[in-house]
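Q: Give me a backbone?
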Amino acid sequence: MILGEYEYRIDQKGRVAIPAKLRKAFQDGLVLTRGFDRCILAYPLPEWQRICERFADLPTTRDKNRRLIRITFASAFSAELDGQGRVALPSPLREYAGIKDVAVMAGGNKYLEIWSKESWENEKLLMDERAWQLAEGMELR
C-alpha cells in the first residue's frame, strides 16, 4: 500500500525525493503520467503493467477509449529512482501539475499522486467539504 502525505522540495534538475518508506514499491522502476486532477501519478512498474493490460482490452473503435489512451500513454514517462531515492519529474508533467519548487506526495493505495503545494491545499479543502457525500455512496464494511 502506498500511504501518507509528504512534502519535498524540487531540486534544480527537477528531481524530487520519494519518501524513504515508499521507495521499496518503486525499486523496480516507475511510470509517471498525468493525473485527471492536475497532478502527476507515479505508478510502480508492476501496477503500470496491470494498467497496460486493462487498456489493451479497450476497443479503440470508441472515441472515449482512444482519448483516454492518449491522455494516459502520450504523457507517460518511464523512470527509475537514483541512488538517493529521487526521481526526475519531466518538465511537461511539472508544467501540467503546476509544480515549481515544492511537491506534495499523497498516497493513493496502488500509486502515488504528486501535486503542487497550492493545488494540494485546494484539493484537501474540496475533499473536506465533500467527504460525507463521497462516503455516503460507498459500501465499506
